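Quick illustration, no need to memorize.
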Amino acid sequence: MQNYVFVIDKNKQPLNPIPPARARVLLTKGKAAVLRIYPFTLILKHVVDNSAPRPLVIKLDPGSRFTGIAILDQDKVIWAAELEHRGWQIKDSLESRRSLRCSRRNRKTRYRQPRFDNRKRPQGWLPPSLMHRVLTIETWVKRLCLYSPISQIAMELVKFDTQKMQNPEVDGVEYQQGELAGYEVREYLLEKWRRKCAYCDKEGVPLQIEHIHPRSKGGSNRVSNLTLSCERCNTKKGAKSIDEFLKKDPSRLEKIKRQVKQPLKDAAIVNATRLCVFRTLKSILLTTTGTGGQTKYNRTRLGLNKSHWIDAACVGDIETIQLLTQQPLRIKCTGWGTRQMCGTDRYGFATRHRERKQLHFGFKTGDIIKAVVTSGKKVGEYVGRVLCRKAGSFDITTSSGRVAGISYRFCIPIHKKDGYAYGF
């Protein structure tokens, strides 16, 4: 079951999405044309008079790495997507630029004086890696509102209690000075350990919270000392230390110890952006909120699998839902490239220069193209993002890997560069 198809009339007024079969009929009879591929949208060749489309609801499950999106027509999920953010790439790029800038200042050469002394951050400022998540969600909500009659937004508004996770014994005034709104530690552990047993990787079974360093030997209830285990492994481990229990499996022991040391970055990201996302969406349309516990209760009660877009569909007060799609659109943020004209090595010295011209033979790096190669060693059909070169030999990134050395003569554009990569 595929996503429904967005439809707008000749005046670009959004109409109710239609099933793929009906979209094929409109295209075959010549009553509509393809406006864009991602998300797939048709434009009618006539104006629809006195149209009163049914109002739709868009539901969001914002996360640190992925955001689930679902569009509902009453209790029917007709369109879904999973949006992958690139905040980690932005953070790494800023850190790389900062290290190069600092190394230049330490040399005995002329440099621009630092301006951080006269800068002041505005109220509500967020780091670029976090603000990226807010702006990307806003972009896609506004984009979907152009192609469908959305009248309301529902989002999951959760808050991870990072202080209670790190120190479960904290209480009284000490706790009141920290983060107040709580969130179940179990839900956080399910995300951290990817919903499987840490000792045998078993999935789809009841998981128990297990102390890595046993309580009988002085272990604490801190979240850094907790993991998930199936009943068999938990019973088998008992009061043994993890070094004793996994002495015959050193690779898994090292993996668990490395995973335990991971900080609560994902929880902190959700906390930092939650209200900013809510205020941004509220300025677009009427926005309602739901809790994380409510989402999980709805998903468990309806017997649905764990997924970002299904979590989005289960946000808020619902009695039942019907999944009319099982193939969400995968949206990956790739950015618009870099404005850096001079590439440097790790010491900050120039090694390469980029050409100002971006358009080569009618293509830009980042366009999604279809290449039908009829001769040579690369005979076949390829669809994906293109990397352009001045010589006319392109690389195409497909779902199965990267294909190099495709001539521009075999390429057909299907979607212009917009800062995202798409798939299913």
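The domain at 342-423 is CATH 2.30.30 (SH3 type barrels.).
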